[in-house]
Specification:
13 strands, elongated, single chain, 6-stranded parallel sheet, 7-stranded parallel sheet, 14 helices
């Protein structure tokens, strides 16, 4: 009997350990041998290769680049993927990230044959309401075309789900909507007041300081520069309170952001923590999470803050619309109205303990809708759908083989 083998494809190393460990376990429980292909030489997240190896995942270095315009390197990566699929006799491709989704599905076309199914999780299409016209010109036609060779398209928000519903998938294909990658609630424990005070002291944040925090890759999309520019207005509005803005994350924009903070004379007020595997501990110490992303598929950092009862001031985008209710479980702000972020931070700062506790309870209730159990159940349904399709196709191949004989 043919061994079922799944290959996760993502552009950068660390993606699977950051977001897909639960899905690895689901596939293994379903009898799959699991492989992972990525550019492990250019990790964005903490790779933790040992953890994948310990789980029995076989790793494959593929020289993918995040930019789709680096076509020479990505053409080489496509050839590498095809060799892996053929050599390992892969039966299921699960593609992630824009370039990983592009190359993975192209490899699926080139290696099409008996029992190869292609799943693509769109963690947020680059085309969305209000997106720049170049995004629509570049990404929309490609996604619409590649959908024809996709068996399952997984989306994580209502706007993308509705958009994908207009795509023509491979015959028998289906679009699913899931509640994100799932919150790991075991890592999101609300600390006791004494423990929280101790954690803040470790970070050099005293109890009288109003501690703003952002969590995410240092990229233009995450928009940390927006908050650095806005910080003087926040400090002016909260006159009498010391304000510190911390950023957990790393990325190619770090140097630019550090220069921006220095130019604005904010070196004492802006703290770069870098990539932190324990970001949840720092988040639990914050007085407010500011989430100014231009684009989000869902926005796990905001959901993690809500699970911890930390007030959130978030930009209005298709991801945060899935769970943010202005004035109830946080504050929804508009990037074109920077003053709305200042207003939201001030409201949070002025809230009484009883009001903060009530908002925190509503936040935690919201976060439960996106926990690992619900996300896992949704992905189990996706993989069950693929298994049925594989069995049906395998039976059809056997029947055709008998007819030939």
């Amino acid at each position: 009997m043919r061994v079922k083998k799944a290959l996760f494809i993502a552009t950068v190393g660390g993606f699977v350990t950051q977001f897909e460990l639960n899905n690895v376990s689901l596939l293994q429980a379903a009898g799959y041998e699991v492989h992972s292909a990525a550019n492990f030489r250019e990790p964005v997240y903490c790779v933790r290769e040992q953890e994948l190896t310990r789980m029995g995942v076989e790793l494959h270095q593929v020289d993918m680049e995040k930019s789709p315009f680096m076509w020479r390197q990505n053409l080489r990566a496509l050839r590498q993927l095809c060799r892996i699929i053929r050599r390992e006799d892969i039966t299921l491709l699960h593609c992630h990230t824009p370039v990983g989704g592009l190359l993975g599905r192209l490899a699926g076309i080139l290696c099409a044959g008996k029992g190869l199914k292609v799943v693509y999780t769109a963690h947020g299409f680059h085309f969305y309401r209000g997106a720049p016209w170049k995004n629509w010109l570049l990404y929309y036609p490609v996604e619409r075309l590649l959908a024809r060779w996709t068996d399952v398209l997984v989306t994580i928000n209502e706007e993308d789900y509705a958009r994908a519903g207009g795509f023509r998938l491979r015959r028998g294909g289906r679009v699913f909507r899931i509640p994100g990658e799932g919150l790991r609630t075991e890592n999101l424990q609300v600390p006791q007041p004494q423990e929280r005070a101790g954690l803040r002291r470790e970070l050099g944040i005293d109890e009288d300081t109003f501690f703003l925090l952002s969590v995410g890759e240092l990229s233009h999309n995450k928009n940390h520069g927006f908050m650095i520019r806005l910080l003087p207005a926040v400090k002016e509005r909260l006159a009498g309170r010391k304000v510190v803005y911390g950023i957990c994350g790393d990325g190619f924009c770090r140097g630019m952001l550090e220069d921006l903070a220095a130019e604005r004379g904010l070196c004492d007020s802006v703290v770069f923590y870098g990539y932190r595997p324990d970001a949840a501990r720092i988040l639990a110490c914050a007085d407010c999470l500011v989430f100014p992303s231009v684009r989000e598929g869902l926005g796990m950092a905001a959901l993690e803050a809500m699970a911890l009862g930390v007030p959130v001031a978030a930009a209005d985008n298709r991801g945060t619309r899935e769970y943010m209710r202005d004035g109830q479980n946080g504050f929804v702000c508009r990037l074109e109205e920077p003053e709305s972020f200042v207003d939201a931070v001030e409201k949070i700062c002025r809230m009484r303990p009883k009001e903060l506790a009530a908002m925190g309870a509503r936040e935690r209730q919201t976060a439960l809708e996106f926990d690992m159990e619900k996300a896992g159940a949704a992905m189990a349904e996706v993989y069950a759908f693929v298994d049925v399709a594989l069995e049906r196709e395998g039976t059809a191949w056997e029947v055709r083989g008998m007819c030939r004989r």
